[in-house]
């Protein structure tokens, strides 16, 4: 899907692979200058190089979103390079193997929360600091179906994704009067490296998963990118504080 982002600046975290990478490429190919951020610096540098070779403006930033000082530097680097910030997709996140709630460890809780929830909070915080000066901008935070429902064995992951929706809704209400829109996407099961690893580890039954989807297939990273670019663009200017399922109909059942 094509959108017009000419003259706009976008920032994407988790842009080294999967949904983040697809969204960064979509922003660039729709005309935006794009900052690609990921803890895997080599991956985002390669992606940025690919985009620059196509004639796009792209900046690679190595960033661990669980570290607020790195997040602040990431946003400052984006604005320093391109002069402003119009759109952001806070996509960085991790998944862990299903675990009995009584067996989960504090270290695991801290790691997942630091990346999936604190990382979104810190990214949004520093993006807003620039956008509020402009009086404009759009942010999309990446939640999950795990932010809308529960699932045995995944209490920590789902807690963080529920938390992302809470952050999104509260900040959306705070910043809507200031010209900034904040929403969330809730991807279903998407064909990404993360899902592939879950299947390889025996942590996800792919056939059963597909059978449970009304659409009869996994989603693609590009379909998430389409949703993000729509939420950040002029076609959704009355959409505020939404947690949008992009799930092939799973939550409609």
From TrEMBL:
CDD domains: SDR_c (cd05233). It comes from Rhizobium vallis. It comes from the Bacteria. InterPro entries: KR_dom, NAD(P)-bd_dom_sf, SDR_fam. Belongs to the short-chain dehydrogenases/reductases (SDR) family. One of its GO terms (molecular function) is glucose 1-dehydrogenase [NAD(P)+] activity. Keywords: NAD, Oxidoreductase. This is Glucose 1-dehydrogenase. Residues 8-188 form the Ketoreductase domain. The keyword Oxidoreductase applies. The keyword NAD applies. SMART domains: PKS_KR. SUPFAM superfamilies: NAD(P)-binding Rossmann-fold domains. Its EC number is 1.1.1.47.
């Amino acid at each position: 899907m094509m959108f017009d982002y000419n003259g706009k600046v976008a920032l994407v975290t988790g842009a080294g692979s999967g949904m983040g990478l697809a969204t960064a490429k979509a922003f660039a190919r729709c005309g935006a200058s794009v900052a690609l951020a990921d803890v895997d610096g080599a991956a985002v540098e390669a992606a940025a190089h690919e985009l620059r070779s196509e004639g796009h403006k792209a900046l690679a930033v190595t960033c661990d979103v669980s570290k607020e000082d790195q997040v602040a530097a990431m946003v400052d680097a984006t604005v320093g390079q391109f002069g402003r910030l119009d759109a952001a997709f806070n996509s960085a996140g991790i998944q862990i193997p299903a675990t009995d709630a009584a067996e989960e460890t504090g270290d695991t809780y801290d790691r997942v929360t630091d990346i999936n929830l604190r990382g979104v909070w810190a990214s949004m915080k520093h993006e807003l600091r620039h956008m509020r000066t402009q009086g404009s901008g759009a942010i999309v935070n990446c939640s999950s179906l795990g932010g809308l429902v529960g699932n045995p064995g995944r209490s920590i992951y789902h807690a963080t994704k529920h938390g992302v929706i809470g952050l999104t809704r509260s900040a959306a209400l705070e910043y809507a009067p200031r010209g900034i829109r904040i929403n969330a996407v809730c991807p279903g099961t998407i064909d990404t490296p993360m899902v592939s690893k879950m299947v390889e580890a025996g942590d996800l039954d792919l056939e059963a998963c597909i059978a449970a989807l009304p659409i009869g297939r996994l989603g693609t990273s590009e379909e998430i990118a389409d949703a993000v670019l729509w939420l950040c663009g002029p076609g959704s200017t009355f959409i505020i504080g939404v947690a949008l399922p992009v799930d092939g109909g799973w939550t409609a059942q």
